[in-house]
Amino acid sequence: MKLSELFCKESLSLSFEVFPPKTDTAFESVRLATEEIAALRPSFMSVTYGAGGGTSKYTLDIARNIKESYGVPTLAHLTCVSSTRETVRERIRDMIDSGIENVMALRGDIPEEKLGEDRTGWHYRHAVDLINELSESGHGFCIGAACYPEVHPESADQREDIKYLKEKVDAGCSFLTTQMFFDNNLLYNFLYKIREAGITVPVIPGIMPITNGKQIERAIKLSGSFMPQRFKSLVDKFGDNPLAMKQAGIAYATDQIIDLFANGIKNVHVYSMNKPDVARAIQNNLSDIITK
Ligand code: FAD
């Protein structure tokens, strides 16, 4: 199923994100975790792409397994920045062979050793280059892209970020998924600005349940997200108590999701990080709200 069809529905739903294993030995445990999440019957599941593409095969293996065994629509991520045109075209062929219909087209983070390089000769400098490549494949992929309510860290300002976001949409992307955020007002403000800029495709907010103290520092460092005082207080109080932090983090994420639904959002994407217990707890908290 193409996700563009799903986003036309009026019902309220959750989707979950999982990541592929880094090694053969980890494959089985990741497969089991992703199957447990698929058994919750989310509206779709996304499978991330390892930075640099070393685990690209696993992204497709996990996505295909979820779709074939549970009938859950999948979204396979693909990055391009450190790849040659030949490699990306090979990955696109692999996706077609695996029956992938939905692709999240990403630039990816630039590897540290390449940060100082002259980028003029690179085949893919931005996600828009990959969106063009996917569109030109003629396969009719439903293409998604990333967006940043708090501005991508490399952008000079939000106006510039939104200008390039519009380029991605104009190149053929049918929906956007946001970076995590902990203050819904940042999303509402961002939505207002992108709608004003003429971006009309569905925007799927990405919510990260913070369930342990260590995860917080890493998540904030990666995303640069603003931590509202309400969230900081919760982390200060419960960060050193794993069970309490998990419960509080799930409650905070649930609260964010309810507010999003109450304000007109129909699908929320949960960064469930291969944790079936977290995905299940959030879904249970919303059992009478989600209408599928
Ligand atoms: P782009 O859209 O190319 O934007 C990157 C920067 O370049 C921005 O500052 C933008 O304003 C600017 N820019 C864009 N187009 C142009 C242009 N034409 N000219 C000049 N400047 C331009 N990483 C992974 O490795 N694997 C994953 O699976 C993965 N999944 C993700 C899912 C989501 C929902 C999100 C939000 C991020 C994900 N990432 C993933 C991280 C992502 O790869 C990084 O955030 C990366 O730094 C930017 O990727 P992008 O596709 O947003 O890049």
Describe what you observe in this structure.
The protein is of the alpha/beta class. The protein has a single domain (3-285), classed as TIM Barrel. The chain has helices at 3-6, 27-38, 56-70, 85-97, 127-136, 158-170, 184-196, 213-223, 229-238, 242-262, 276-285, and strands at residues 13-18, 45-47, 74-79, 102-106, 142-147, 175-178, 203-204, 206-207, 267-270. It has a nine-stranded parallel β-sheet with strand order 7-6-5-4-3-2-1-9-8, with helices on one face. Strand 2, helix 3 and strand 3 (74-79) form a beta-alpha-beta unit. Helix 2 (27-38) runs parallel beside helix 11 (276-285) and helix 10 packs across helix 11 (276-285). The two termini are 15 Å apart. 42% of the residues are buried. The mean pLDDT is 94. Bound molecules: flavin-adenine dinucleotide (FAD). The site of flavin-adenine dinucleotide has 25 residues, from strand 3, strand 4, helix 5 and helix 6. Residues 48-49, 51, 77, 79, 104, 106-109, 126-128, 146, 152, 154-155, 160-161, 164, 167-168, 177, 179, 206 line the site of flavin-adenine dinucleotide.
Percent of residues in beta strands: 5-15%
**Overall geometric form:** globular
- Helix content estimate: 40-55%
Number of helices: 11
CATH architecture: Alpha-Beta Barrel
Q: How many strands?
A: 9
Computed CA radius of gyration, to the nearest angstrom: 18 Å
> Segments where pLDDT lies below 50 for 5+ residues?
none
CATH fold naming: TIM Barrel
Oligomeric state of the chains present here: single chain
